[in-house]
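re: ur question from yesterday

yeah so i grabbed the chain u mentioned. its 272 aa long if i counted rite. heres the sequnce exactly as i have it in my notes:
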Amino acid sequence: MIVQMAAENNAYFIITMDQHTVLAAQFAEHFGNALFEPIAPRAQVLHVVANHDAGWKALDQMALRDPATGLPYNLVQTPFAQLVVTSKASPDFNGATHPYCELLSSMHSWGLYNGRYGMSDKVLLNNLADNNRTVADHMLTGELARQEQLKAALKADAETAAWVEEAHLFQNYKQLQFFDTLALYFNCVPEGARVESCFSHIPLSATEDTEITIKPVAAGVYALNPYPFDSDALELSFEGRYLSPVSAGEHLREALEHAVTQRQVIHLVAGD
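ran it thru and got these structure tokens back, copy pasting raw so excuse formatting
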């Protein structure tokens, strides 16, 4: 789950990974204009964006309590034994729809441990204990083998061969990372605390990238420059539930189930 930051003594907005990917999918649905090439293959990429964290579903339903906070474990604070399972489960889930979905999902899992293929300075592998590193290395080796098998199969099919040409494949991968990290920008920090930020490696095309700056300009309104979406102004939203820390003797899952689902709304506009 994602535990949004909160001011002292305020309840925390708790977001499941399904709710996180719903927001990422909204960005993907509207991505593309005269400057930014639209998503292609559209159906497969939209599916994987909407399900890139599908492996978290069972874990989110467990609602494991972090004893340090009294709240659900927040993303990478999740115990490694549970976290690593999601990394394989997500591509397994996406593979049921299409091998290209499985490939992009596997790349997403591998990239999270390895600085998003060099596009991020956050390298999860560097923060793992030695015994966890061994387990992670085994999982990641399996994902690389999975990727090679999938690319070979997709390349052998005339309909999908162009999809796995490296420049195009990484165009789709970088699109997925943008939608994921932009969703996290809103999910992790509440309105009023979000600040200007820059997203790098955003593909204009298969061969050219750019940076996108996002800046709060009014209450609930965020300007992006350059603007990557198909409508001059977008109203989007994501759901979650507010929760205060739960004591060790209480049932966190039950508290979450009784909390009312609420929405946070955002407006995106083109920057100057």
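noticed a couple things. The chain has nine helices and nine strands. also The CA atoms of residues 153 and 167 lie 18 Å apart.
anyway ttyl
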